[in-house]
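2024-03-11 09:14:02 INFO worker-7 job=invfold-0412 stage=load source=structure_tokens
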């Protein structure tokens, strides 16, 4: 990993991360890591294989692909990836595994096959050797290279494709001060600093020497060269660059880098949203569903509305539903599921995706829906306090003449004449609202447990703020807990 000027002489440069095993630092695993599902993992695997085919151009493509698929292609990012982020290790640059010392020896002529194991710039060229097989499995950290755009392009042609690039930066005055304090132990090659990392042993202190090329003028010249090159390097790594300020405690820099390299970027695999909105009556599910349908072209599927439409059409399902509506009792789950299946199987739902609300309402209904193959890939629970629900619903009114709906607080009627004739629905009484809320929360715990990756939101906010949260949960990968 590329260090700041206090270690390598640069203000900050690309730290390129490949695939690494996620077992090297069990002491520090963040609670969540975004990731798509198994189907998208297969997509990424095939995409990676095609990339390697184009890069390696093997004589026997079939054998190459079989060997590639037989490898351990685990894309988890190493917990130890950022160990060199802010540590004072011996100076050196190269491509290395997590925990290894920097590679500082020339590695021979450029290689074309497999991943690359060592790198060093010598006389303007980057010399490389082919890697050990475990680099493919464990991944790598590229430190100190590329320093120019030409090197970045050369590295790409040789098949080095990082998934994370970190740029460490700090004010030039800070970097010059750091560089002036560097000292080297000529026996061990260890780097120390007069302010931040002074050795306690007097024997080591006495033999430390000032390294060449760290004067204020030389450092300023190297910084100028760095600034000139970095703006040409970064466009080579679009959408995967993370800038981190190095002018802060080492631990903070480390954990920011660690958090970033544990992030799996959004997959390019096709993604059809199947969204489920859960929440008590009055939590705003209908409005959020309408907003999602309007912006993303999803099919708005309201289960209650489907039942009413089926009954109005006098279909065979409508005849089954009507007795329950007349008696004002709950429609059996298997009947609801038949109506819902008919809608979700239509071509627009299959192609465009859907946003469903008002079903399921308990774990049994969720299991029934899941067993029939209708599995949402995004589930949101909207939590709203009881007092806010009461305020939202008990003040709703309907004009019996025009059918217009009003709210005495948020959308009052324009005239006293209209206000005088407004009517309240029996379902909006406080007693009915309390009963329906108790019924929802009685089942919500089991429902949330069933949908383990559900995202819980505060629904007691401006509707468009809630929509932004829901929208970010749809377009970004799902958070996944790390065991």
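2024-03-11 09:14:09 INFO worker-7 stage=emit residues=483
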């Amino acid at each position: 990993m590329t260090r700041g000027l206090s270690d390598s002489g640069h203000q900050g440069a690309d730290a390129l991360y490949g695939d690494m095993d996620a077992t090297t630092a069990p002491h520090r695993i963040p609670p969540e890591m975004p990731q798509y599902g198994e189907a998208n993992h297969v997509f990424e695997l095939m995409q990676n294989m095609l990339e390697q085919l184009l890069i390696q151009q093997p004589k026997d493509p079939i054998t190459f692909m079989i060997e590639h698929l037989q490898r351990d292609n685990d894309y988890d990012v190493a917990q130890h990836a950022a160990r060199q982020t802010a540590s004072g290790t011996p100076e050196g640059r190269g491509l290395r595994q997590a925990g290894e010392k920097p590679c500082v020896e020339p590695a021979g002529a450029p290689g074309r096959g497999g991943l690359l194991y060592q790198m060093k710039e010598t006389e303007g060229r980057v010399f490389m050797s082919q890697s050990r097989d475990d680099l493919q499995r464990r991944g790598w950290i590229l430190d100190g290279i590329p320093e120019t755009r030409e090197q970045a392009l050369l590295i790409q042609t040789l098949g080095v494709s990082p998934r994370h690039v970190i740029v460490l930066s700090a004010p030039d005055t800070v970097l010059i001060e750091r560089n002036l304090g560097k000292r080297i132990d000529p026996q061990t090659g260890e780097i120390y600093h007069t302010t931040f990392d002074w050795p306690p042993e007097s024997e080591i202190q006495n033999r430390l020497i000032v390294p060449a090329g760290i004067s204020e003028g030389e450092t300023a010249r190297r910084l100028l060269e760095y600034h000139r090159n970095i703006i040409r390097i970064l466009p080579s790594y679009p959408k995967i660059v993370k800038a981190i300020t190095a002018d802060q405690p080492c631990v903070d820099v480390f954990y920011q880098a660690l958090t970033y390299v544990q992030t799996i970027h959004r997959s390019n695999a096709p993604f059809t949203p199947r969204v489920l909105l859960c929440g008590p009556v009055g939590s705003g599910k209908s409005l959020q569903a309408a907003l999602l349908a309007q912006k993303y072209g999803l099919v708005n599927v309201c289960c209650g509305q489907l039942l009413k439409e089926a009954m109005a059409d006098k279909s065979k399902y409508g005849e089954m539903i009507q007795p329950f509506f007349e008696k004002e009792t709950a429609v059996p789950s298997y009947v609801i599921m038949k109506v819902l299946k008919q809608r979700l199987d239509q071509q627009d739902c299959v192609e465009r995706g859907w946003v469903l609300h008002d079903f399921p309402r308990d774990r049994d209904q969720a299991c029934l829906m899941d067993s029939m193959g209708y599995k949402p890939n995004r589930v949101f629970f909207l939590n709203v306090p009881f007092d806010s629900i009461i305020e939202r619903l008990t003040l709703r009114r309907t004009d019996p003449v025009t059918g217009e709906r009003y709210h005495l607080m948020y959308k009052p009627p324009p005239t006293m004449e209209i206000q005088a004739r407004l009517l309240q629905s029996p379902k909006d009484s406080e007693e009915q609202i309390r009963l329906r809320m108790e019924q929802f929360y009685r089942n919500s715990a089991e429902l949330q447990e069933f949908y383990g990756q559900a995202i819980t939101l505060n629904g007691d906010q401006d509707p468009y703020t809630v929509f932004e949260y829901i929208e970010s949960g749809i377009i970004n990968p799902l958070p996944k807990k790390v065991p």
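2024-03-11 09:14:09 INFO worker-7 stage=report msg="The two ends are 26 Å apart (CA to CA)."
2024-03-11 09:14:10 INFO worker-7 job finished
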